[in-house]
Amino acid sequence: MRLQMAIDVADVDKVMEMVDKVHDVVDIVEVGTPVIMGYGVEPVRLIKEKYPQLTVLADTKIADAGSYECQEACDAGADIITVLAISDDGTIQGVADTAHANGKLCIADLLSVTEISTRARRLEQLGVDIICVHTGVDMQAHGRTPLMDLVELTKAVDPGKTAVAGGISMSTLSSYTALKPAIIISGGALGKAPDLRQAVIEMEEAMRKEEN
Known about the structure:
212 residues; alpha/beta; TIM Barrel; eight-stranded parallel beta barrel; 19% strand
């Protein structure tokens, strides 16, 4: 299992400040959608130029023009690119093919998908590398979590091809690690911690213990 730290603050200086603190202890840094909406993929480029060994995910949530949008992210240095699972199959295929042609990975975000098992199997056929269940902030406000969605997803596809996002913190982590997804994504719980670096280290250590 790998820990992905989601950075959703739309301030490129703050993004770099956060990355500086954790670049050597976190598995994956996610340049979140709010950052990309504000600055495009330039923050991805800045991070990769400074920390070329760091795995960087561009949360582009591509919904159209898959090949073009994915190539932009790849050119900036993104190692992983996201596409919305509700997108047209041709869009998803374009993202997957373009990512692979550049030696990168493609993640499909199941945000708002209701038929998780059916869509997940189709996403595998389209060449998606990782399938992510995601409970958005607005849904979290109504008490939703991604746990049951992850349970359904891991029954449909290999858990090693899954990821999970949506309000995950140290207090809820064990429920997710028990299902052995490839990637566990945490944003606010890490970003709002008094000591970001220590929070990342503690979550990483807890995940490692669950694997052993």
